[in-house]
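User: I've been trying to design a sequence by hand for this structure and keep getting stuck. Would you show me what you'd pick, starting by listing the structure so we're on the same page?

Assistant: Good idea, let's start from the same input. This is the structure you sent:
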């Protein structure tokens, strides 16, 4: 993912903030946090919520995780310039997240407004995502062709 793609996604969320007259949105679902961050956030993969939360406002965003995952996320999954905030692993993230009638989220928690529409933001690909998808499809087709040719020679 390129930083420009993240900015496109940020603007899509800002449009929802404006539409619903909210101040912040908290992304917690793994598919949504992976979509926005461009990183692998499914540790562990048995939960609906991600190993990090993303708090987004009109002015920017930050990533929030525990003190075990935060260094890994910073080193492996996020941009070096990303604002990553950590808390001790034994403290629940729920109590540290913004709440209130002006805060939306993709899952229930606190008194945040649940916004099912957030899931739909992932349905439209950015230009960079389309380019990568085309490259992957081309590579996959080439690999399939090559293996088919190899198998034909052996038959």
């Amino acid at each position: 993912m390129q930083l420009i793609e993240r900015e496109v996604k940020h603007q899509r969320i800002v449009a929802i903030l404006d539409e619903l007259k909210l101040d912040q949105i908290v992304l917690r679902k793994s598919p949504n946090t992976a979509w926005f961050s461009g990183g692998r956030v499914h540790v562990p993969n048995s939960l609906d919520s991600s190993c990090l939360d993303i708090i987004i406002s009109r002015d920017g965003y930050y990533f929030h995780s525990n003190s075990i995952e935060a260094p890994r996320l910073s080193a492996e999954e996020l941009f070096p310039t990303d604002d990553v905030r950590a808390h001790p692993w034994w403290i629940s993230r729920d109590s540290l997240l913004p709440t209130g009638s002006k805060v939306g989220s993709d899952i229930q928690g606190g008194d945040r407004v649940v916004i099912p529409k957030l899931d739909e933001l992932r349905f439209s690909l950015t230009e960079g995502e389309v380019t990568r998808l085309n490259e992957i499809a081309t590579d996959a087709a080439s690999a399939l062709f090559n293996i088919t040719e190899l198998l034909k020679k052996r038959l």
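That's my pick for every position. To get oriented when you compare it with your attempt: The two ends are 42 Å apart (CA to CA). The mean pLDDT is 89.
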